[in-house]
Design brief:
The structure holds two protein chains of two kinds. Chain A is about 20% helix and about 35% strand. Chain A is an alpha+beta fold. In chain A, the strands form three sheets. Chain A has a seven-stranded antiparallel β-sheet, with helices on one face. In chain A, strands 12-1-2-13-14 form a five-stranded antiparallel β-sheet. A two-stranded antiparallel ribbon of chain A has the order 3-4. The longest helix of chain A is centred in the middle third of the chain and has 11 residues. The mean pLDDT of chain A is about 95. In chain B, helix 2 crosses helix 4. Classes of the chains: A alpha+beta, B mainly alpha. Strand 5 of chain A pairs parallel with strand 2 of chain B, so a sheet runs across the interface.
Chain lengths: ~250, ~120
């Protein structure tokens, strides 16, 4: 996955992501595609969660999947989640759950609960960084005020790092793939460098949902695992999603 | 390109989405949180039943390729549903509703919903 939150020169915040899933889950030699990824694309759906006929939050999800990986609470915050690989991974949390230790929260249930119940950017940030979880993850959170954008690197128990937009330091966007920001990505899977190169080329003055779509359409940020691209504008309460494909030549991940 | 390091150029003018990298728009659905959790996903699942079954079948095929005896899927179908009651509300009721409307065995819908925790290894 690749997720980013960017602030334009007027202080407006944009949040976007490519959802990549299905690595090593069945490579189709003939069609040069991943089997699970191919079957996930037709399941992509935009969902408007309402109470009393009013929108509580909106999300891009998969039919049959009740947790959330990408969502917006209009006027308040935007949230995406990227997978974090760790030896202390979700299978340990799962095992603990089976054995009866159930004080952690399932990742996608937490994100949905935050989208449904958090009352502000700070509240969402607090819940995402402090709630005990079954699996590690990266949470990418955007707000509605200048400077409100961060990447929360989570272990199962706590937040390991929070990396925020900082305009004073020239950091007008934060971007996450699937690697800790203080470490180099695996050299065979470096989507961070091209994504940052394209963001820097775009410049803060020209950042918009349109130019962010360009960044997320650049290979290998777009790759054979990409199922959808979602673009979100928190102030307008806008979420738009597109099903993606990556015809050859294209990286398998 | 197939080989890192990255040397491709940054795309421009891709929006509005079209062409080979765009496979389609995403449909909108409303989930009414005032409904009982069991019923919330009925419309969406009724419309995407076949696609959900296709995905589950691919996952089953992969599982059977790793464990040809079929015991892994037997475990998912027979034992995983025992976990459902330990899940918090409203998720357990929603998952049950999805399984009933789609016709996909409960354990397999549950596996799809906890895929992240299972596969972060």
């Amino acid at each position: 996955c690749t997720s980013l939150v960017a602030e334009d020169s007027t202080g407006k915040l944009y949040h976007a992501r490519n959802l990549d899933f299905g690595l090593f889950l069945g490579w189709d030699i003939k069609n040069k595609s991943w089997a699970v990824t191919e079957q996930l694309r037709p399941l992509v759906a935009n969902v408007d969660f309402q109470k009393n006929n009013k929108t509580v939050f909106k999300a891009t999800s998969f039919a049959g999947y009740v947790g959330m990986l990408t969502g917006i609470k209009p006027g308040m915050f935007t949230l995406t989640m990227n997978e974090r690989f760790s030896l202390d991974g979700g299978y340990i949390g799962l095992l603990e759950w089976i054995l009866g230790r159930r004080d952690g929260v399932w990742m996608s249930f937490l994100t949905r609960s935050v989208l449904e119940n958090a009352t502000s950017y700070d509240d969402a940030k607090n819940q995402l960084s402090k709630t005990k979880m079954l699996a590690p993850a990266y949470f990418i959170l955007g707000g509605n005020k200048s400077g409100q954008g961060c990447i929360i690197t989570r272990s199962r128990l706590s937040s390991v790092d929070i990396w925020e937009i900082d305009l004073k330091k020239g950091r007008w966007y934060v971007l996450e793939t699937n690697y800790d920001r203080w470490k180099d990505p695996l050299f065979l899977d470096d989507r961070r460098t091209p994504a940052m190169k394209c963001m820097n080329e775009t410049t803060q003055a020209k950042i918009s949902l349109e130019t962010i779509y360009d960044v997320l359409s650049t290979k290998p940020v777009l790759n054979k695992l990409t199922t959808y691209t979602t673009l979100m504008d928190v102030s307008e309460g806008k979420l738009e999603a597109y099903i993606r494909d990556c015809p050859d030549p294209c990286m398998p991940w | 390109q197939y080989v890192p390091p990255y040397t491709d150029y940054c795309r421009t003018g891709m929006y509005p989405p079209s062409g080979a990298t765009f496979k389609g728009n995403v449909s909108w659905y409303t989930i009414n949180l005032d409904l009982p959790p069991y019923k919330r996903w009925n419309q969406l699942i009724s419309e995407r039943k076949a696609e959900l079954n296709n995905l589950i079948q691919v996952i089953k095929d992969l599982a059977n390729a790793f464990v040809p005896s079929g015991k892994l899927i037997q475990l998912v179908d027979k034992d995983l549903p025992l976990l459902l009651d330990s899940l918090p509300s409203p998720f357990k009721e929603e998952i049950k509703g999805i399984a009933d409307v789609s016709g996909v065995p409960l354990g397999e819908v549950l596996l799809f919903n906890i895929f992240y925790e299972v596969f972060t290894v």
